[in-house]
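Work Package 4 report. The design task specified in the project plan requires that, given a folded chain encoded as structure tokens, an amino acid be chosen for each position. We show below one input record used in the internal validation round.
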């Protein structure tokens, strides 16, 4: 895995699709990097509010966002707008990605395609498709080969406070991963590039399932002796299961020992800040899943990922007892 570049980052025009927790924090980071950022939302009320107050009314409410960000929407970006962008960052839930890409496909033509970066973490229910497969299905193999993925231990509320953060960046095209790293790199935000997007995707999606399991263990009220074999045991065995599933897909086992694998797994399974851990914790306390989802305030992709993962485990005849039980 390559180390981050220390060269100055050139100014880019960046369209961020998705004004949720993570999309907003990354837009703010990119704005502070002096990029011209356009934050798309499907809600007209958000666009109006953000452009007046430079605050997100739904997420990170106490944070004042960079003045280099302009909110746009609710209409889908036009072909002219798309072709005027250097970077398009997809920060929408995996379950809505196919529909969005299908709508944008007519705009992704011509000699100059924007750098396409994906930060969603999940598996599509019904098809059990990874994001790379969704991109290939909707936009073709050429676009998929140039797609870039970012994953790693990174909470939104800490990114906006400029807490030191390190992530993995992967693409089937090495030069595209390097470009994405340059777009994001700052002294407090370091990117390490690699060529295993399948492994990075799976690590980012699967760790959410194990975070739900870890939260359940804590929510059940286990004390120190039990926790020593429950949460640490879940992390250890979860990593083994993730690696087993990943290698069955052809991913490198080394990817799961990096930031996107064990790094993100440890953080997500051990912090109440994690949405997926919170879902598990509240389940352990006896709440109903429907009530948790309705009151969580943001998307916990591990819930839908667990359903798709169970089908994958069965189809591939893989032994992964923790993931199977979460479903």
């Amino acid at each position: 895995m390559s180390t981050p570049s220390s060269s100055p980052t050139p100014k880019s025009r960046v369209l961020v699709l998705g004004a949720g927790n993570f999309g907003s924090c990354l837009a703010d980071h990119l704005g502070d990097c002096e990029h011209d950022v356009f934050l798309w939302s499907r809600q007209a009320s958000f666009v109006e509010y953000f452009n007046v107050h430079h605050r997100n009314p739904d997420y990170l409410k106490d944070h004042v966002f960079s003045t280099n960000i302009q909110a746009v929407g609710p209409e889908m970006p036009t072909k002219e707008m798309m072709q005027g962008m250097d970077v398009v960052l997809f920060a929408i839930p995996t379950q809505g990605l196919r529909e969005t890409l299908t709508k944008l496909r007519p705009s992704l033509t011509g000699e100059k395609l924007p750098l396409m970066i994906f930060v969603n973490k999940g598996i599509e229910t019904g098809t059990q498709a990874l994001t790379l497969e969704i991109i290939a299905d909707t936009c073709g193999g050429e676009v998929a080969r140039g797609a870039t993925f970012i994953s790693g231990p990174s909470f939104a509320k800490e990114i906006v406070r400029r807490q030191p953060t390190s992530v993995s960046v992967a693409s089937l095209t090495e030069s595209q991963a390097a470009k994405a790293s340059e777009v994001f790199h700052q002294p407090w935000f370091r990117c390490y590039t690699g060529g295993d997007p399948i492994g990075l995707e799976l690590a980012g999606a699967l760790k959410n399932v194990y975070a739900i399991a870890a939260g359940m263990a804590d929510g059940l009220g286990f004390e120190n002796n039990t926790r020593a074999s429950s949460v640490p045991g879940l992390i250890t065995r979860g990593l083994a299961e993730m690696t087993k599933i990943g290698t069955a897909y052809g991913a490198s086992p080394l990817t799961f020992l990096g930031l996107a694998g064990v790094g993100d797994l440890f953080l997500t399974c051990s912090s109440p800040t994690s949405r997926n851990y919170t879902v598990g914790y509240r389940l352990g306390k006896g709440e109903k899943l429907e009530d948790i989802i309705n009151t969580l305030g943001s998307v916990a992709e591990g819930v839908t990922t667990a359903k798709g993962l169970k089908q994958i485990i069965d189809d591939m005849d893989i032994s992964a007892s923790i993931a199977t039980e979460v479903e």
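Residues 3-8 have pLDDT under 50 and may be disordered. Validation will be extended to a larger panel in the next phase.
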